[in-house]
From TrEMBL, chain A:
The keyword Cell division does not apply. Substrate-binding subunit of tRNA (adenine-N1-)-methyltransferase, which catalyzes the formation of N1-methyladenine at position 58 (m1A58) in initiator methionyl-tRNA. Keywords: Nucleus, tRNA processing. Residues 431-458, 465-474 have a biased composition (Low complexity). This is tRNA (adenine(58)-N(1))-methyltransferase non-catalytic subunit TRM6. Residues 415-489 are annotated as: Disordered. Heterotetramer. Belongs to the TRM6/GCD10 family. Signal peptide: none annotated. InterPro entries: TRM6 (IPR017423).
TrEMBL record, chain B:
Coiled coil: none annotated. It comes from Linnemannia gamsii. The gene is TRM61_1. The lineage of its organism: Eukaryota, Fungi, Fungi incertae sedis, Mucoromycota, Mortierellomycotina. The keyword Transferase applies. It holds the Pfam family GCD14. Its EC number is 2.1.1.220. Residues 72-388 form the tRNA (adenine(58)-N(1))-methyltransferase catalytic subunit TRM61 C-terminal domain. InterPro entries: SAM-dependent_MTases_sf, TRM61_C, tRNA_MeTrfase_Gcd14. This is tRNA (adenine(58)-N(1))-methyltransferase catalytic subunit TRM61.
Length: 489, 410
């Protein structure tokens, strides 16, 4: 039987999401031995949940703020009655308990004298028109009051899903509006898996880097390029990654890709033998920092990345043109932006690039529904934007074979025809009596030359073909490419 | 055999080079993708040309390969689960990337996870799962249709996934999963998922949190499944729908109204002889009225010295009873003033702008990049129902608890 690994249980010192009866989620760092206050819902002791497996809910009871595992009653079928709301009037005096009474109940609840259920029952009993409500309305009332008075909380494990949900609701601009469905599609398109090598520019405070790192499970490499002093991957810390996973995340500043003038190599640093104490420590620190940067540089220059993901505030093309050469062939290139319009120019740029295939802009729509027996319907408020993705595949536009465009073929045929004409003209001149040897030789030379050119353009020599094709494509010749496209679509 | 040595959908080849026996996805066009296995003697023929397999050997994945005939080309792509979802032969309705992605994230899939899937169907989702849980995880997938099991088994084998996937021919609604205390995640794509919920509960690892997702096109199925899930003690039940909008990008050339009118007048001029008498009369009258309300001095200044099509100059000079000039008048006004929008007076002007005030912004034609959603869009795949299994509670089902409670109160 498999044992639980540390990620499956609640550990001290880690980030924990606490979901409260009001459905609000609070984020805390769980310190051993501490008391955690949930405001009007009470307080619980951290040690009561440390070491337990994730998933359970807990109820605070008794005066000592004891906790016990809470078993929800579950949603029962609501049996319809003949009630309707025809005679129900919105009257604040329907509830016989006064505000002071309710406050007293609340504080008794907090002290542990009363359970949440008992409080709700009292409210229900003092409600004059409760019995007149429809069965659904009664259930909704009880559930709503329950949310206010039950002292039940649920610790939730931070995962890509829960972390993204937390920030999307609390602070969407921090993660540039990337919502779970869009983020999960990004993960699919990127084909991220254990052991791959990813190049990332992430301005979503590390939401994307975190999601990728989780899917890599501690094996492989993510290289994040950043501008400014620090990468600002704030979200990574919420994920409670183990050291192995954290080690897969490498960073490199754009300004340090090539060694700046003021950076010293270890040789250029002070002479080690002369240093002692603090100076020696300082040296070792600097050496360590240098080695980290060198390692990141090596990772970048080795190239052959399995995906390029850009979620930047800057113009995507300006980043793509610098980083595309490092991406291997047949690998995804993905650009994320909070708004679709910001991706339009990049899409056009991608279409014109010989290094990218089939750029595609997508937007995702997500709707949540409430599911209760007999009362299932979409929720009344829904989400707006979740961001947009522009995806394409990196390709190698160096056709090794005779991948001639129509234009190239016509040019070649024209050249052949001219060479033939020239040859015939020379032969006629020769048969008319002029010196045979030079013209024959010349004709032969001309023929061979043309033949050689033909062979060259046929692609035996990669460089020549590349040049030819490069000329065709780099002058931004959409016409040539669209001719091809028209044929193949 | 370790994944690194055998060519597989679950991970990339170390050297990214095509070798004999490898799988390659040929990209002919967006709608046309084909999976082939490289065999030296074979040749691939299509409307875009002929391609010898031998020519592909030694090339990098991602290479653009020209055909032997000199016309046409294909791209040689690496096989991935995402491409497979687009290519695979459908034996059943399959899951597409929108649902696959969201479900994988909700179920918290990553390397090492153990998952149960039923039914296997055409294996679309199975490929994505296998890739995500590799190398240490495992997928137990169940399908009750014998032939589909056979096809899927062969595919998993061909695609190098047999170490990650165990497929069994089994009706899980009748006979359960036959697994106890094993899975981190369960996915049910069945006509009656509520019949498999109890067995799914047993199949979960009992000592940790688990996630379940059911996939049902009809709301009635959702209702029944919710009841079953609640009965069995699953919590945090929620339902989602997810759809992807694929945008087409277009560049529109949008001309200004004045430019369009100019073109119209130019073509109208060509047709002027076709103008019937009655229209010409009313046209003349209209022109007369418009002219009366214009500041003609400025027009005259603009007209003089500017080249026009007929060599006519000012509006003023045009004789109203001259049929030929009627249509020229408009065009001459327009053609002369194209370069000076601020003092431009066209017959489409609704009000006379104040000459002394600088116009706010020159209005020119532009190229606008826009997106467009194709008319036909996917409207619905299925409802995704998610729920959480909580550990170590080992609660009997609600019905049983109620029975016990009822018995106790007697």
């Amino acid at each position: 039987m498999a044992t639980l690994n540390p990620a499956d249980i609640i550990n001290a010192g880690e980030h924990v999401f606490i979901k409260m009866p009001s459905d609000n989620v609070k984020c805390i760092v769980l310190k051993a031995g501490s008391s955690v206050s949930l405001g009007k819902f009470g307080t619980f002791k951290a040690n009561d949940i440390i070491g337990h497996a994730w998933g359970n809910s807990y109820e605070i009871y008794d005066r000592d703020s004891k906790t016990r595992v809470y078993h929800p009653e579950g949603i029962s079928e609501v049996e319809e009655t003949a009630n309707n709301n025809r005679e129900i009037v919105d009257d604040p005096t329907s509830q016989k308990l006064t505000l002071d009474d309710i406050k007293a109940l609340k504080s008794e609840g907090l002290k542990g004298e009363l359970t949440g259920e008992e409080i709700v029952n009292k409210l229900k009993e003092s409600h004059a028109t409760f019995d007149k409500k429809t069965a659904y309305s009664q259930a909704k009332y009880l559930q709503k009051k329950g949310k206010k008075f039950h002292k039940v909380f649920t610790p939730i494990k931070p995962t890509t899903y829960s972390v993204n949900e937390y920030f999307y609701v609390k602070n969407p601009s921090k993660i540039r509006d990337i919502r779970m469905d869009t983020l999960s599609q990004l993960l699919s398109y990127s084909n991220v898996h254990s052991g791959c090598k990813l190049l990332v520019v992430d301005d979503t405070q590390g939401m994307i880097v975190s999601a990728l790192a989780e899917r890599m499970g501690g094996k492989g490499t993510i290289l994040g390029l950043y501008d400014g002093d620090n990468p600002h991957y704030d979200i990574v810390k919420y994920m409670n990654f183990d050291q192995e996973t954290l080690d897969t995340i490498k960073v490199l500043s754009w300004l340090r890709i090539h060694r700046p003038a003021d950076e010293k190599t270890p040789d250029e640093m002070q002479d080690v033998t002369q240093l002692t104490g603090k100076d020696l420590e300082g040296y070792h620190r600097r050496l360590k920092a240098y080695n980290i940067v060198e390692e990141s540089r090596k990772v970048l220059f080795e190239g052959n990345f399995d995906a390029l993901i850009v979620a930047s505030q800057y113009q995507p093309e300006s980043i793509l043109e610098k980083l595309l050469p490092y991406v291997a062939g047949s690998r995804p290139v993905i650009v994320y932006h909070g708004t679709k319009e910001a991706l339009l120019e990049t899409s056009t740029w991608m279409r014109r690039s010989p290094d990218l295939l089939a750029p595609q802009i997508t937007e995702s729509w997500l709707r949540k529904s409430q599911v209760l027996p007999g009362r299932t319907h979409p929720e009344m408020s829904t989400w707006g934007t979740g961001g947009s993705l522009l995806t394409a595949t990196k390709v190698i536009d160096q056709p090794v074979q005779a991948a001639l465009t129509k234009r190239e073929r016509l040019a070649m045929e024209k050249k052949n025809a001219e060479a033939k004409k020239l040859k015939r003209a020379r032969e006629e001149a020769e048969s008319a009596g002029s010196s045979p040897a030079p013209s024959l030789a010349a004709a032969a030379a001309a023929a061979t030359e043309t033949a050689a050119t033909d062979v060259a353009t046929m692609g035996e020599e990669e460089e020549i073909t590349t040049t030819t094709t490069a000329t065709i494509t780099t002058d931004g010749d959409d016409e040539g490419r669209s001719v091809k496209r028209a044929k193949q679509e | 055999m370790s994944l690194a040595t055998k060519h597989t959908f679950a991970t990339y080849k170390k050297n990214n080079t095509i070798e004999n026996g490898d799988l390659v996805v040929l990209y002919l066009s967006k709608e046309n993708l084909i999976l082939i296995r490289i065999q030296e003697s074979q040749e691939f023929c299509c409307k875009f040309g002929n391609y010898k397999h031998a020519d592909m050997i030694g090339l990098q994945y991602g290479t653009k390969l020209g055909s032997n005939t000199g016309r046409g080309f294909v791209f040689l792509l690496y096989p991935t689960p995402e491409l497979w979802t687009l290519i695979l032969p459908h034996r059943t309705q399959i899951l597409y990337i929108a649902d696959i992605s969201l479900i994988m994230s909700y179920l918290d899939l990553k390397p090492g996870k153990v998952m149960i899937e039923s039914g296997t169907g055409s294996g679309s989702f199975s490929h994505s799962i296998a890739r995500t849980i590799a190398p240490g995880g495992h997928l137990f997938t169940f399908e009750y249709h014998q032939e589909r099991v056979a096809v899927a088994t062969k595919e998993f084998e061909d695609h190098g996934l047999q170490d990650l996937v165990t497929i069994e021919c089994r009706d899980v609604c009748k006979n359960g999963f036959g697994l106890v205390n094993k899975a981190d995640a369960v996915f049910l794509d069945l006509p009656a998922p509520w019949e498999a919920v109890a067995s799914a509960k047993q199949a979960f690892r009992q000592d940790k949190v688990g996630k379940i997702c059911t996939f049902s096109p009809c709301i009635e199925q959702i209702s029944k499944t919710v009841t079953a899930l609640t009965e069995q003690g699953f919590v945090d039940i929620k339902m989602y729908e997810c759809l992807i909008r694929f945008n087409e990008v277009r560049i529109l050339q949008i001309s200004t109204l004045d430019e369009a009118l100019e073109m119209e007048r130019a073509s109208e001029k060509k047709r002027k002889r076709a103008l019937p008498r009655v229209l010409r009369e009313s046209f003349k009258n209209r022109l007369q009225q418009e002219r009366d309300s214009q500041e003609q001095d400025d027009d005259q200044e603009d007209m003089e010295g500017e080249g026009e099509e007929e060599g006519e100059s000012a509006v003023k000079k045009t004789r109203v009873d001259d049929d030929d000039n009627a249509s020229q008048q408009g065009s001459s006004t327009l053609s002369s003033a194209v370069g000076t929008p601020s003092s431009f007076r066209s017959h489409a002007d609704v009000f006379i702008p104040d000459e002394s005030v600088e116009p706010r912004e020159s209005i020119e034609s532009k190229n606008v990049t826009v997106t467009r959603l194709p008319v036909e869009q996917r409207g619905h795949t299925s409802y995704l129902l998610f729920a959480t299994f909580t550990p170590a509670t080992q609660q009997p089902s609600l019905t049983e608890r109620n029975k016990t409670a009822a018995a106790a109160s007697k």
